[in-house]
Amino acid sequence: MKISVIGTGYVGLVSGTCFAQMGNSVTCVDIDEGKIAKLRQGIIPIYEPGLETMVLENHEKGTLAFTTDIQEAIASTDVAFIAVGTPMGEDGSADLQYVLAVAKSIGEHMQHYMVVVDKSTVPVGTADKVKAAIQTELDKRGVDLEFDVVSNPEFLKEGAAIEDFMHPDRVVIGAESETAMQVMHDLYAPFMKKSDRFIGMDIKSAEMTKYAANAMLATKISFMNEMANICERVGADVNKVRHGIGSDGRIGYSFIYPGCGYGGSCFPKDVQALAKTAKDFGYTPRILDAVEAVNYDQKMVMADKVIKRFGEELSGLTFAVWGLAFKPETDDMREASSITIINALTTRGAKIKAYDPKARHEAESYYLKGNERVEYVDSKYDALTGADALILVTEWQEFRSPDFDEIDKRLNSPIFFDGRNQFDKERMARLGFEYFQIGV
Ligand code: UDX
Questions:
Q1: Which atom of ligand 1 is nearest to the CA of 156?
Q2: Atom of ligand 1 at shortest distance to CA of 153?
Q3: What is the mean pLDDT of residues 296-325?
Q4: What integer best gives the mean pLDDT of the chain?
Q5: Do 186 and 40 lie in a common domain?
Q6: Locate the UDP-glucose/GDP-mannose dehydrogenase C-terminal domain: which residues (predicted)?
Q7: What's the number of domains the chain is made of?
């Protein structure tokens, strides 16, 4: 099939590349000329395992093209994916201006029947708006063309996006017409070992599925963080409680790791957007509001522990920070807990020596830009030299079994704040560390 993917952000680039890998002819479109020029040279704007090789291969083969010319792309397309950003507006709702601008362009340029797919995470009811925006342009042109708008929410996890796309645990499609449903089925069939992973439904339910999935996962995390905070106060150990409850198949082990709060491009934005939608429709979402509030506070828990240990005034102290990205295997720092923790400490006068295997550039150029108290280093051990304590924020694999002697030797004193509960507290005590965890 001939596919256009509009928006070469994270979701668009991964989806376009994987569709090309399956033998489709894909054109990725973006208005950012610099980005398209780089992609044409094989320079990938994000770090995602496996992506670069796949982009290069398909670009060379000619199955994956990059352009800023939406007119040309749309004119020869069977299926157009809208994969542009839906940033959070000031009131917490998703800002649809980019999605609707793409819909307008599609209406301006389409030449024959097309399936238009909402891949961006969009509030319930957006497909209707996309449809109306396309129809308005067709009416202006005075042409009578059939088209379908379909909702196909994305469930990719950063750091495992290629794997998730190539072997999906489900593909959710919301469509009104049988033709569109069949087109989507044909498109995704090669990715699925079992056809029961294709879940067709009406458009609104598909739009809602994405939010419900992310809200459920975010709820599990905030719930566990709340349990951790209670454990800490009553003298229980959340790591043991986690084991204890996870063995119940109905609860399960996944997504019940307490930590410094969830970040990323999805959970924070989607929980708030769903809460906003609920309120717009006259319902007060008490659980969603609590999930968000708990997460907001959780991002401060590690900084609070540092402040409790060292006092409110932190000038003259230096803290080593391991991990800046919102999670391992990505350079993404959107809504990362590291931002809250570092800013909380530096505003109290502390200096930070930060190390992250991939996110240094993001931190330096955007998320911690201008914070003169942060120094970036190129190895985890360099961060420790002369520091008064170590704070582990992101659980990259290279932090899993560090050389504790080296840590001890380099730190001014062996004080370790572990925001991801990576180590056994008895062992850490034996090694002579003053060791702080979440929920213990
Ligand atoms: C998430 C969803 O998993 C994915 O299906 C959706 O399409 C987009 O949002 P992603 O944001 O890439 O994916 O990251 P994920 O691995 O889900 O982690 C999100 C955040 O939750 C991270 O900050 C992570 O550290 C945190 N988390 C996760 C916990 O604190 N505890 C857990 O047990 C799991």
A1: 7
A2: 7
A3: 98
A4: 96
A5: yes
A6: 320-425
A7: 3
Catalytic: 266?
yes
Nearest CA to 48 among 90, 16, 82, 94? Answer: 16
Token representation of residue 142: 């005075």
Q: Are residues 83 and 158 in the same domain?
A: yes
ipTM of this complex? 0.94
Residue 380 placed within a domain: yes
User: CA dihedral defined by 212, 216, 222, 227, rounded to 10 degrees?
Assistant: 150
Residue 318's domain spans which residues? 299-436
For a pLDDT cut of 70, what percent of the chain falls above it?
100
pLDDT value at residue 219: 98
Q: Answer whether 263 contacts ligand 1 (Cβ < 6 A).
A: yes
Paired residues of 318 in beta bridges: 351
Do 304 and 281 lie in a common domain? no
pLDDT for the residue numbered 89 = 86
Q: Whole-angstrom Cα distance, residue 271 to residue 341?
A: 22
- pLDDT at position 121: 87
Q: Name 353's bridge partners.
A: 320, 375
For 436, phi then psi, to 5°, come to -115, 135
Residues 147-198 pLDDT 10s: 999 999 999 999 999 999 999 999 999 999 999 999 999 999 999 887 779 9
What pLDDT sits at residue 391? 98
Which of 297, 320, 349 is the last residue before a domain boundary?
297
Atom of ligand 1 at shortest range from CA of 266: 9
The per-residue pLDDT for 94 is 87
425 backbone φψ class: left, alpha, beta (φ>0; ψ -120 to 50): alpha
353 touches 319 (CB < 8 A) = yes
Å from CA of 213 to ligand 1 middle: 11
CATH of the domain at 237: 1.10.1040.10
* pLDDT per position as a tens digit, 29-40: 999 999 999 999
* Cβ atoms 67, 35 nearer than 8 A: no
267 alpha carbon to ligand 1 midpoint, in Å?
7
Domain harbouring 349, CATH code = 3.40.50.720
Query: Is residue 264 in contact with ligand 1, taking CB distance under 6 Å?
Result: yes
**Domain end point (choices 201, 234, 264):** 201
Which one, of 375, 371, 335, lies nearest residue 356 by Cα?
375
Q: Let me know whether 344 and 423 are in one domain.
A: yes
